Amino acid sequence: MKRIVNRQLSIVNYALSIVVFCITAISCSEKQDDPVAVCENGQFVGYVEDNGVLTFKGIPFAKAPVGELRWKAPQPVDASDEVFEAKTNGLPGLQSYDEGEVASHGEVSEDCLYLNVWTKDLQMKEGRPVMVWFHGGSYGWGGTIDPLYEGKYLVAEYPDVVLVSVEYRVNAMGFIDFVDVPGGEAFPDAPYLGILDQQQALRWIQKNISAFGGDPDNVTIFGESAGGGSVSCHLIAKGSEGLFRRAIPMSGDIYLEHTPENYKNNGQAAKLLAATGCKNMDELMALSEADLLKALNEEAGGLSFEGVGGNVGDYNNWPMRSDERSIIPSDGYKAFLEGKSKDVDVMIGIVADEMRYWAHLQFDASDKDSPLGFYYEWAKEKVEGYKKIGGPETARRIDESLQYIDPDSDEWDEKLPGIWKYTQIMNDYSFRLGSITMAENHSKAGGKGKTYMYIFGKGYEKGVYPGEDYMKACHACELTYAFNNLAYKDGAPYDPVLTKRFSNILVNFARTGNPSIEGLNIPEYDKINRSTLIIGRDSKIYVEKNPLAKETALLLPTFYDYFLKR
């Protein structure tokens, strides 16, 4: 953050001050059209995009979580009337290098609690909706610097919207449990710090978004993957009440959480101690940022729970759910049913071929005979794991589903029989069944909040790399459409008409709580009809009652028990 300091003339340095004054006057003259937003912690000078959108980047919403604040809950910013430049994106949180995460490829930092704002007009106007984005990355990677999340295109198309993107702590800095580390009792919030960071950002937004023309009473939080899981957490988390009006969890229901036992089994704290040579929290706190980053990239052996990696940072955790030790209840689905979020409008979304993204992550182009062989074995193992955890009845229902699931057959299915059937079962247990359970429970809670659901099926016709024509509507494929970001290129066959229609659906939901667009009425979701918005592979948008009905009837009764056991 670059601070603009007001310089005063002094008698001793009169001549030098005259020179400085002249330079400053010229600079101010050149920047006189730069927008200025007056907030509680300073006056922030942004800039005007080439499409006329006013952009502010790198605004701090909390004190830097460094020094004594490392692994501590975020602290509110101090009041200030100083002037700061807000033209550069804040650095992503400290994270290990990951080939698929752009934010991990450059500089990263513990000092990461910043947000970005895009707006067309600084003047407050009645009901101007605010959309707050939480990025994904499995809670271990990612950042607002990713060009996929560039907000100027969405705001240019919908100038009545104010868009915010939020950086938060990830990986071992945002989600780690020190319960077994000497001195760890002084860091009780460590397993869900990233969620607390987001809460603090939402509090800052409540106090300051009117300076950017936004309405603090009309805030919608949305995010994808870990960002979607974060949105789901806020719907039931202590401390998130009243900070937003609507929510769009995208490919991220409350399944994406860990129990204390999961944390222990994952073992990231032990791996961090081994990589750094530290024996207690005092020694961990004394480490430099460089030493911490080096440790996250140290080889830890084995494979992370996602079947990739093996470095310390690859063993990142998801937010801890625990009635005794967390702000997130142990049973989030029950919390929905009991009405924890009943007065919040919710639109829950998934994509049709979620797990094919992991096929992409594990694609081995050097293996000419079986470049998807590792993924194939991993997928079969995951499905067998569902059966083992769920028990005999779950196993029976999965086996029956495998008999009739008929995904698009292709050359991969011929080489690796059943690869896409196993993938579909993983889609169900990792994303679809949990999303349905959350939607049903939110609908049944009987509050003022509406419930909607969508499945996005328009995906890749060709993959990111040669030979990856199997990716289709894989995890995260809808984000360019959501952000109206046709400038982003990663191999997807973007449909400009669909881009405007899908982004319009999200914006309409943020505006009014009703996602319907011209020519398409989208009904609310309930357990009886399960009316679901479908975005098809052919770009057509329509509503279907109870999609994948037979599969749902077989597998949904097994999901809740499986979730509680896993």
Describe the protein.
Helix 13 (392-404) packs antiparallel against helix 18. Strand 8, helix 2 (152-157) and strand 9 form a beta-alpha-beta unit. It is built from 18 helices and 15 strands. It starts with a strand and ends with a helix. The protein has helices spanning 14-30, 152-157, 171-174, 193-208, 226-236, 260-266, 268-276, 281-286, 289-296, 332-337, 356-361, 373-390, 392-404, 411-415, 419-444, 479-482, 496-512, 549-565; strands at 2-4, 36-39, 41-45, 47-48, 54-60, 80-85, 114-119, 130-134, 162-166, 219-224, 246-250, 345-351, 451-456, 531-535, 541-545. Strands 4-5-7-9-8-10-11-12-13-14-15 form an 11-stranded mixed β-sheet, sandwiched between helices. Strands 1-6-3-2 form a 4-stranded mixed β-sheet, with no helix packed on it. Mean pLDDT is 92; it is low at 1-32. With 566 residues, the protein is an alpha/beta fold.
What is the topology?
Layout: E1 2-4, H1 14-30, E2 36-39, E3 41-45, E4 47-48, E5 54-60, E6 80-85, E7 114-119, E8 130-134, H2 152-157, E9 162-166, H3 171-174, H4 193-208, E10 219-224, H5 226-236, E11 246-250, H6 260-266, H7 268-276, H8 281-286, H9 289-296, H10 332-337, E12 345-351, H11 356-361, H12 373-390, H13 392-404, H14 411-415, H15 419-444, E13 451-456, H16 479-482, H17 496-512, E14 531-535, E15 541-545, H18 549-565
Parallel strand pairs: 3-6, 8-9, 8-10, 10-11, 11-12, 12-13, 13-14
Antiparallel strand pairs: 1-6, 2-3, 4-5, 5-7, 7-9, 14-15
